[in-house]
Amino acid sequence: MSSLPGRRSPACPDNSPVSQETTDPPDQTADSGLDLARFDRLNTSPAWQVVAESLRRKIALGLYRPGDLLPSERQLAEGMGVSRITVREALRVLQGEQLIEKRRSNAGGAQVRAPRSHPDAEARRERARFLHTIDCRMANECLAARLAAGVRTQAHLDALEETIVAMDVASRTLEEGHDSEEDAEAARQAAVAEFRRQDSVFHLTIAAIPANPYLFRTVEWLRSEFFMPLDLLHRSRNMQDSVGEHRAILDAIRRGDGRTAQAAMQRHLESTKLSLDELLKP
User: Which one of 138, 161, 180, 279 has the fewest CB atoms closer than 10 angstroms to its CB?
Assistant: First the structure.
């Protein structure tokens, strides 16, 4: 076996001539134009940046909704195994991004702000990223659904059922009338935020059931990459029966039918992809 680039082959004496043929790995991808053996520049992020990204991801997933209080600095520091100075710097960054606002409260730390409005044109520029992300979600979340069907417990099933009930309530709230436009808009934003949260909890719970940390982290990251403006999310959800599709996935998992659960998850994500593709067309 040839040695890695930049290393001396252990089979050769220190002063022995080593031919180019024995030191460089064969270029098996020259014809395809892909360099699979390339070395990417390493980038180790400072701790505050890792903390900020973790919180940013949970806000994007809707696990912390607008108006929710984050845990206190002390709780975050203890939970994430970092110093309070690190947490404070991360919160300062998120405040600068207008994702949170600092406030004094005995109940918790900073408060999550309502998301900034994004024009549809900006979302359309992200069309390719959204569609690529859904393709990767299919590969991972369909696997998660199949595996979950084989190891789910009653507690898992109850948790998934709760998310479907809450999603249904949020969907119905969007159709309710209100006395004023201001009240209607506030109720709509709250309902969409709750829908996003329950949608994330449903998918992340399924990803967590197989107890594979690599699978869960991948699903969590892909879903956070899928973050989009709430208005666009609302319209895309109105074009598909997300509650019914989630119900089909849960029913298959409840029966322990992995193949059907996988197929139901694929239909759900394909429906999401078709809806978004229609919405995001130039």
Answer: 180
- Paired tokens of 106: 């005995």
Each domain of the chain, given as residue ranges in start order, spans 47-112, 120-279
Q: What's this model's pTM, rounded to 2 decimal places?
A: 0.72
The DSSP string of 153-172 is -HHHHHHHHHHHHHHHHHHH
Residue 146 · residue 262 · CB < 8 Å: yes
pLDDT at 6: 41
Which stretches of the chain score pLDDT less than 50?
Answer: 1-23, 25-26, 28-29, 230, 239
Rounded-to-integer distance, Cα 185 and Cα 57, Å? 25
CB 170 within 8 A of CB 194: yes
For the chain, the straight-line distance linking the first and the last C-alpha, in angstroms and rounded, comes to 52
